[in-house]
Amino acid sequence: xxxxxxxxxxxxxxxxxxxxxxxxxxxxxxxxxxxxxxxxxxxxxxxxxxxxxxxxxxxxxxxxxxxxxxxxxxxxxxxxxxxxxxxxxxxxxxxxxxxxxxxxxxxxxxxxxxxxxxxxxxxxxxxxxxxxxxxxxxxxxxxxxxxxxxxx
Length: 152
What we know:
Elements: H1 11-18, H2 29-41, E1 50-56, H3 64-76, E2 79-86, H4 89-104, E3 113-117, H5 124-129, E4 143-146
Parallel strand pairs: 1-2, 1-4, 2-3
């Protein structure tokens, strides 16, 4: 994985980089999320809400227990995680839904979201604009992450 957009609240920067996301290679989801979390811990504005958006376009190989442990750690540190799952929906959805469930801690109001977009969809940015990740809140603030290797 690689970081395509550093800390920003500029929606235009995020959307312009979405076109650079290409599913390829093998994703190390846990390492990618940890790198994004590390970047958030060193942000300049400590008052801003911590949020990671990860694009996952390759199969997630980590075990459910490892994903649960990471999700609970992020929840404890008040980090929201939004995941865009595209291309590997059948293989990743169950694992990523479990991750989001643990990251939300079973709360009725979800801070973390999963959006699954079929590989046949050629309008990734349109799907994001109508998703809870960007569309529902009407504003965006967080760290962007993802890309090569399909996520991160």
